[in-house]
Design goal:
YaeB-like fold; 2 helices; 5 strands; single chain; 36% helix; globular; alpha+beta; 5-stranded mixed beta sheet
Length: 92
């Protein structure tokens, strides 16, 4: 069984921070923390079978894929043993 290393790129890290701050301001910090924990667990599932997700509808470079989680899109690409998270945003 092959496992991949998850690397969250700086832009995606900023996206996660913005999501946390938005939920904190519009709901509660407790819910923001809980949601971010669940979102990070969804990202961690990419360490196993990262090819299972569709090709990205948002980044058309032929190598980026989209993981959908509760209305959010996690864009990533696979580079050898690494999975690079490049963006996280709410679907519209």
């Amino acid at each position: 069984m092959e496992y991949h290393i998850i690397i969250i790129e700086p832009v995606a890290e900023a996206d996660l921070k913005n999501i946390y701050e938005y939920i904190c301001q519009n709901d509660s910090c407790k819910k923001a923390k809980s949601f971010l924990t669940k979102l990070q667990k969804a990202i961690e599932t990419l360490s196993f079978m990262p090819y299972r997700c569709r090709n990205s509808l948002y980044i058309d470079d032929g190598k980026t894929k989209d993981l959908i989680y509760h209305g959010y899109t996690i864009c990533y690409h696979i580079d050898g043993e690494n999975v690079h998270i490049v963006a996280v945003f709410r679907q519209r």
